[in-house]
Write a structure and sequence with these properties.
By secondary structure, the protein is mostly beta strands. About 10% of the residues lie in helices and about 35% in strands. It is built from four helices and 25 strands. A five-stranded mixed sheet has the order 21-20-22-23-24, with no helix packed on it. Strands 3-2-1-25 form a four-stranded antiparallel sheet, with no helix packed on it. The protein is globular. The relative contact order is 0.12. The model is unreliable at about 235-245 (pLDDT under 50).
């Protein structure tokens, strides 16, 4: 019988690079022997560094070869110059819609209207209630009806904390469930206008509307309810005149234990032009208000189709401080099959300069790139 331990390490690495293109295939590779296991783990750490943000990007020149791949340390890279083994395949169907990303987990909607939480590294899949259980099911509704999904916690966490899923539907409807539920529950108390982002902050969901207004949804109550925070937004966007002015989109981010509200301004050609950052000041004895923020104190923020998140020391994992790293999240352009997926970049908070995030040499990158932070 051959002694696999005697194969030179360089040959083993070559076998891994040429044969193992899907990251989960490295598991049987690691099971061959102790040497192969050490090489397999080295490969995983280099291609999927734990707790470091990377991108799930589309690749493949033709319909038959389209895949989703993982791009670690994307800033400044030209993916057209990278070999296949530099971009490991993720087992996420190209046609699936990603409607949320939290750490290493995705919220996926399929063509047949099924929904689930999925870890593309471990391939663990957690079912969510069928879309047919949505409270206001509409005839002819498609997967595009679901706009955004927010998780309250990491699924399958070692703690006993429940994982709730909050979903934005269409323009005016929001639903939620606890992992394990068989139906979706509508959030009835919200006013009938557009809601665009949310975050699970201090054990409750903070929900933000198109104007920057904030609502609190407490899922821990026996009968969960919504209350309006009653704070004037830092800046109003005239909804009816959005075609006459630069279009704005809001994000909520937890940064060092505090809540940030970020306004992203785009031009008519769907290209980001500017960001404005505000911090919620809830000092004791004062009326809560939003304060303009001129720097991120060396931190970095990541926004897009993912749940927005921040890093306090981004320089430790290959990113620069006082930057906002953004990806294209214009769902409408993607749905209409027009040019989309290319509004990616790095915004320097100090000088308001926008730089490219990575290069594709492509007129359209569908489906859009999504931030993922693989976990240990």
């Amino acid at each position: 019988m051959a002694n696999w331990n005697e194969i030179p390490r360089d040959i083993c690495r070559l076998i891994l690079q040429k044969v193992v293109t899907v990251i989960t295939d490295h598991i049987p590779f690691c099971g061959v022997c102790r040497l192969w296991r050490s090489i397999g783990l080295e490969y995983r750490r280099s291609k999927f560094p734990a707790n470091v943000p990377g991108l799930m990007i589309p690749c493949g020149p033709t319909t038959a070869t389209r895949t989703r791949r993982f791009l670690a340390f994307p800033v400044g890279k030209d993916i057209t110059r990278l070999d296949d083994h530099d971009l490991p395949v993720l087992s996420v169907p190209h046609e699936s819609l990603c409607r949320g990303s939290h750490r290493g987990w995705l919220v996926i909607v399929e063509e047949n209207m099924t929904m689930y939480i999925y870890n593309p590294i471990s391939r663990v899949r957690i079912s969510l209630p069928p879309m047919t259980t949505l409270p206001k099911l509409k005839q002819g509704m498609s997967k595009w009806y679901l706009k955004r999904a927010i998780l309250s916690a990491i699924p399958l966490s070692s703690s006993s904390v429940d994982c709730f899923v909050l979903v934005f539907c269409g323009f005016y409807e929001m639903v939620y469930c606890k992992v394990g539920d068989v139906v979706w529950t509508a959030i009835e108390e919200l006013k009938p206008w557009r809601y665009i982002d949310a975050i699970f902050y201090k054990e409750v969901f903070y929900i933000m509307d198109h104007y920057g207004g904030i609502f609190i949804f407490d899922v821990n109550l026996p009968h969960p309810k919504v209350t309006e925070l009653g704070i004037s937004p830092p800046r109003l966007i005239p909804y009816g005149k959005s075609l006459l002015i630069p279009y704005g989109k809001w994000y909520l981010v937890e940064f060092g234990g505090e809540l940030l509200q970020i306004l992203r301004t785009t031009k008519f050609i769907n290209q980001t032009a500017d960001f404005q950052v505000f911090r919620l000041d809830m000092s004791s004895g004062l009326v809560p208000k939003w304060i303009d923020v001129k720097d991120l104190e060396g931190g970095a923020v990541f926004v897009g189709l993912n749940q927005s998140f921040a890093l306090s020391k981004p320089n430790l994992v290959g990113y620069k401080g006082d930057r906002i790293y953004f990806t294209d999240d214009d769902i409408g352009s993607h749905k209409l099959f027009i040019r989309s997926g290319n509004d990616n970049g790095v915004f320097n908070v100090a000088n308001s300069i926008v730089e490219p995030l990575y290069s594709t040499h492509s007129g359209s990158s569908k489906p859009p790139a999504v931030w993922i932070s693989p976990m240990e």
